[in-house]
Amino acid sequence: MEVPGDKSISHRSIMFGAIANGTTRVWNFLKGEDCLSTLDCFQKLGVTIIEHDQYLQIEGKGFNGLIEPTEILNVGNSGTTSRLILGILAGTPFHSVLIGDDSIAKRPMSRVTGPLRIMGANIDGRNDGEYTPISIRGGQLSPIHYQLPVASAQVKSSLLFAAMQAEGVTEIIEKSETRDHTERMFQYFGGELEKDGLTLRLNGPSTLNGRDIVVPGDISSAAFFIAAALIAPNSELLIKNVGLNQTRTGMLDVLKDMGAYIEVIPHSIDSFEPYGDLIVKSSNLNAVEIAGDVIPRLIDEIPILALVASQAEGTTVIKDAEELKVKETNRIDTVARELNKLGCNIVPTEDGLIIEGNTKIRGGIVDSHGDHRIGMMLAIASLLSEESIHIQGTDAISVSYPNFFEQLQSLVQN
């Protein structure tokens, strides 16, 4: 099987294509609702984006080619769109307004708007720019020396987009390593970036040129089928062409520590992002502690890891995962509440979860609460129950995986 294109890379392909000079073509773009929100926002900023049968064509005009939108920029449910686009708009000499859905309206934005104001952007919004709607008028940006207070690729990426427009060296120091898709794509488009441990230095302003991009399969989407193959009896699964960026493969490392059979077959073809195939087989798993620097490398996979841990031998403890509280839902509380409805024994903590293993999954009524990763995790849980599980709010899954249920049904039948 193959999973849809990587969501993080699909977002960034539109953004870099828009701010580069010339044509960018993108194959395997994820047509989920979040990425389509990014596409729509940049069309409103004057970027020509043409959808061909096999690829997207983006006609970039550089930062200076963006125009003031006549409509409000609606980011939908996408935290990536909202935070990264603010970094791009921070240096534009016009006014824009961002809104999103009810979930976005609760997600913290000051972690981005604060440092962007220091760089020179004029930003206002609800609770002084903490929440959407957010109004931004770009300014003459100055470089910044900034230590990130949270481990967040979204905040880092937003500041890098702003740094590309500032005159001089911007230095960003990460709390711990986070996904590096922005840095990789920036260099692929011709930008220059220096990395020294957790410190990034970018000497702006930057001029980028359009490129061809092939988006690998999303390992965060593959995670649900990896979990299914591990915990469903007598299973074996081949997943082709999935992204293997080491800032995203924390789940594979943890699962191997738990005793999982996962064979990684990297592709030797040159690419700005590593990718390859995975072979996964049913495995007897043991509990582990998941904490520290691995957390940013698997933050989106924690809901499905919690389900896997409920089937392992022993008690799994997840710590240092406070960032789960400000996702589409408070995923610490939501994971515990919904899986406990199905017979699991999970205790939420301030920064993670305590999960008792060897749980028998039973039927029941559960709810995604509008969170795509919760919805898919609950669907995988249904494979382990002899009773029916009714999942409310499954439409949220279209945010990242529009054909999830079709692929799941196909695999179950085979």
Task: Please render the helix and strand layout as text.
Layout: H1 7-19, E1 21-27, H2 33-44, E2 48-51, E3 55-61, E4 73-74, H3 79-89, E5 95-99, H4 110-119, E6 122-125, H5 126-129, E7 131-137, E8 145-147, H6 153-163, E9 168-173, H7 181-188, E10 194-196, E11 199-204, E12 212-214, H8 219-231, E13 236-243, H9 250-257, E14 261-266, E15 275-281, E16 289-290, H10 302-309, E17 315-318, H11 331-341, E18 346-348, E19 353-356, E20 364-367, H12 372-381, E21 389-392, H13 404-413
Parallel strand pairs: 1-12, 4-5, 8-9, 16-17, 20-21
Antiparallel strand pairs: 1-3, 2-3, 5-7, 6-7, 9-11, 10-11, 13-15, 14-15, 17-19, 18-19
Helix pairs in contact: 1-2, 1-3, 1-7, 3-6, 4-6, 8-10, 8-12
Binding site for phosphoenolpyruvate: 7, 79, 107, 154, 331, 373
Organism: Bacillus carboniphilus
Domain Enolpyruvate transferase: 2-408
What does this structure look like?
With about 425 residues, this protein is an alpha/beta fold. It has two domains: about 5-205, UDP-n-acetylglucosamine1-carboxyvinyl-transferase, Chain, CATH 3.65.10.10; about 220-414, UDP-n-acetylglucosamine1-carboxyvinyl-transferase, Chain, CATH 3.65.10.10. About 30% of the residues lie in helices and about 25% in strands. The strands form six sheets. Strands 2-3-1-12 form a four-stranded mixed sheet, with helices on one face. A four-stranded mixed sheet has the order 4-5-7-6. Strands 8-9-11-10 form a four-stranded mixed sheet, with helices on one face. Helix 1 runs parallel beside helix 3, helix 3 packs parallel to helix 6 and helix 8 (about 220-230) packs parallel to helix 10. About 50% of the residues are buried. The model has no long low-confidence stretch (mean pLDDT about 95). This is 3-phosphoshikimate 1-carboxyvinyltransferase. Pathway: Metabolic intermediate biosynthesis; chorismate biosynthesis; chorismate from D-erythrose 4-phosphate and phosphoenolpyruvate: step 6/7. It is found in: Cytoplasm.
